[in-house]
Every structure is written in C-alpha cells, then in structure tokens.
Specification:
The protein is mainly alpha-helical and 207 residues long. Helix content is 70%, strand content 12%. The chain has a two-stranded antiparallel ribbon with strand order 1-2. A two-stranded antiparallel ribbon has the order 3-4. Strand 3 and strand 4 form a beta hairpin. Helix 2 runs parallel beside helix 4, helix 3 packs parallel to helix 5 and helix 4 runs antiparallel to helix 5. The N and C termini lie far apart (57 Å).
C-alpha cells in the first residue's frame, strides 16, 4: 500500500490490485492436472479416430472392434475414476449395502471456506467439452450405421454410446444433485421458455 499526502487528505492506493487480478486469471487458465486432462481426451478421441479410419488401415474387422472396445473401456475407467475427481471434483460409483441392495452414489467436492477451487476453469471446460461432445458423435455414428445397414458396426457403436453416455449421466447427476433436482431444473427451464414465448407474442400483438 502506498500513502499519498495532499495537504490534510491522505489516500491509500493499492499497488498490487493489477498483479492480483493477473495472477487470478493465470490460475484460472492454468491446467493443474495436465496428464489427467490429456488422458481425458486421448482415449475417447482415439476410439473415434480408429472407428473412422479402421477400414482404411486394415481389413480385419475383429482387430478394429477389439481396439475400439479397449479404448472405450480405458476411457470409461479413466473418466469415472480419475479425471472427473481431479479436473472437476466430481465422482460417482455403485455400492452394495448390508441388506444386499445396490446404491448409486453421486458426490461433488465442496468449495473451501476461502472459496477456492481445486480445479481451474480451463480444466473444467476441457472436461465438459469432451464429456458431452463425444457421446453425441457416437449417437451420430449409431444412426449412420443403422441407415447404411452396417449391422456389424452397430454393436461397436452402441458400446460407445452406452459407456460414454453412462459417464455423462453420472457426472450430470453429480453436478445437479438428485433426480428430483434434475426434474425440477428441466421443468423450470421449460417454464421459462414458455413464459418468454408468451411475452414475445403479447409484445407482437400490442405493436
């Protein structure tokens, strides 16, 4: 802090506000877990690339199928058990209680008292971008295989949709909470959209 005297007036001027703001931006943009960020995208992108290029690289359907399923399985394990916990502080799993009933647990890391987060905004964007976009690509592959009558590829594509869709559903449940919260969010969104359309129609009628 620098004290500037001007007659009887004394003003405190901070010299470090700009530096603090720059450091905050750098922390938000920095990847705190670069290895986890790399493998979060590596397995799922590799599976898509192999699916697109396998007929050009080899004529063996079995080799392509095994490679894709291995990549999808590695991706499912890595995203479920490692990258979600490190990059966004979320995790989900299944456990069996003493009565033999299966329970699904969805957890989110609590923000510390200082409001600081263990993950950066850059990591969060990478995580959610990969988590949402890749299952959508596999859904497109599924329709393509179905309409082009590539029945032998349909099982592989369905495996991609199921494994990556399961992680997407699990982390959405971790993010928004229970099924009741998920339903209420959808209802609230639809209500807002209906209200906006009603207001827009009223404005057009009034004009």
């Amino acid at each position: 802090m620098l004290r500037q005297d001007s007659g009887d007036d004394i003003e405190d001027v901070s010299l470090f506000d700009a530096d603090d703001e720059a450091s905050r931006r750098a922390k938000k943009a920095k990847l705190r877990h670069p290895v986890a960020s790399f493998f979060h995208l590596f397995f799922r992108v590799s599976a898509i690339v192999v699916y697109l290029l396998c007929e050009l690289l080899t004529s063996s359907f079995i080799a392509c199928m095994v490679t894709i399923i291995l990549l999808l399985s590695c991706d499912f394990w890595a995203v479920k058990n490692v990258t979600g916990r490190l990059m966004v502080g979320l995790r989900w799993w299944n456990q069996v209680d003493d009565d033999g009933r299966s329970q699904w647990i969805f957890e989110a890391r609590k923000v510390s008292a200082q409001g600081s987060k263990a993950s950066s905004e850059a990591e969060s964007r990478i995580f959610w971008l990969g988590l949402i976009s890749c299952p959508m690509i596999w859904v497109i592959f599924a329709f393509s295989a179905l309409f082009s009558f590539k029945v032998k590829w349909l099982a592989v594509v369905i495996m991609g949709v199921v494994l990556q869709g399961a992680n997407l559903y699990g982390y959405i449940r971790c993010k928004v909470g229970s099924r009741k919260n998920l339903t209420s969010m959808a209802t609230s969104y639809l209500g807002k959209q209906f209200l906006r359309q009603t207001v827009a129609k009223d404005d057009q009628t009034a004009s």
